[in-house]
């Protein structure tokens, strides 16, 4: 597909940069210049918008330059654009629409800007980016640091080759490779900064080994119920220590295979065991991101999902464990709720204990929590003001 390079892009690009500055995502002149010099539309020749078709099926509809104004309006807006679907789950339902699971996207520009600012690069820094995707973030890094200092890896050879062509057309030639980004970029270390645009259950040892002592790792750590961006410093003992950032953002999970995500094995749901009244409601959990993060510390390995009753269609928020234990509360409840559970009755009680702790400690924001990974692989979170620690699993 031939993508128009500049028609209509400069004014839209200028407006996007101004918007990112207005909301505080771009805070420095250096990154303002980088964003202003990289046309995003080169890196998003097509994208998929989620919608419900006339049969009630959720599908991903492809958008491309055929409708140039709508395409560029989307590309130069502050929104995430899905750019690839998992071929193992994608099924074509009409000429321009598919079902399936997204596997790559062009990230929300404001999130990218905040992360790049948080990365605190300096002239001469060598950077490893895990998750090349469209190549847009790599182009921004090249614009800021120069091609020879930027290294980017993605699990999908097809995405890497497409990104290579887009980067070249924009005038950038960073070091690119296809492979499991959780193994870093062997043979090119050490790096001063490592940034990941995929989530990992813990910071991989390879990233620590390939980031110089005193260097920074910025990544999304996923802990089941919730996760978040951590800003970490590598020490001489091959440990990383830091905190969750004020920038809140989540990414697709890292994959070791280019074509699909691993499927988690779960025990069947336990039979319903009872119900009770509780003060912690689904509304409370949904409304407070820092609390969900704390809940993930308290219930490592747990999950938070939406449940729809087969008979009534009523929707609930459900906590669940891999052993089949579950507890759910209706979405609509406000002040108190009726919790239904299967297996142990303790699951929602543990959530209530976390809720009580969070409120008693002044409802701390996410940047009041630290994260560390020891050289032996153990990782944990802690409450920075008082040192309360929660071991994590992965």
Salient structural properties:
394 residues; alpha+beta; 3 domains; 10-stranded mixed sheet; 10 helices; disordered N terminus; protein-L-isoaspartate (D-aspartate) O-methyltransferase activity; Protein-L-isoaspartate O-methyltransferase; PCMT; S-adenosyl-L-methionine
Describe this structure in words.
The protein is of the alpha+beta class and 394 residues long. It folds into 3 domains: 9-106, no CATH class; 109-244, 3-Layer(aba) Sandwich (Rossmann fold); 272-360, Double Stranded RNA Binding Domain (2-Layer Sandwich), CATH 3.30.160. The protein has helices at residues 9-22, 29-37, 68-75, 109-119, 136-145, 157-169, 205-210, 282-287, 289-298, 346-360, and strands spanning 47-52, 58-63, 81-85, 91-94, 97-99, 102-106, 127-130, 150-154, 175-178, 191-200, 211-222, 227-234, 240-244, 272-278, 303-308, 315-320, 326-330, 337-342, 369-373, 379-383, 389-392. The strands form 4 sheets. A 10-stranded mixed beta sheet has the order 9-8-7-10-11-12-13-19-20-21. It has a 5-stranded antiparallel beta sheet with strand order 14-18-17-16-15, covered by helices on one side. The radius of gyration is 22 Å and the shape is globular. The two termini are 42 Å apart. The model is unreliable at 1-8 (pLDDT under 50).
Any idea how many domains? 3
Mean pLDDT: 91
Rough outline: globular
Using the 3D structure, state the CATH architecture of the largest domain: 3-Layer(aba) Sandwich
Strand order of the largest sheet: 9-8-7-10-11-12-13-19-20-21
The CATH class of the largest domain is identified as Alpha Beta
* CATH topology title of the largest domain: Rossmann fold
Helical amount among residues, as a percent range?
Answer: 25-40%
Low-pLDDT runs of 5+ residues are 1-8
Count of alpha/pi helices: 10
Secondary structure: number of strands = 21
Oligomer: single chain
The CATH homologous superfamily of the largest domain is termed Vaccinia Virus protein VP39
Largest sheet properties: 10 strands, mixed
Radius of gyration in whole Å, from Cα?
22 Å
Give me the secondary-structure category: alpha+beta
Strand content: 25-35%
Give the terminus-to-terminus CA distance. Answer: 42 Å
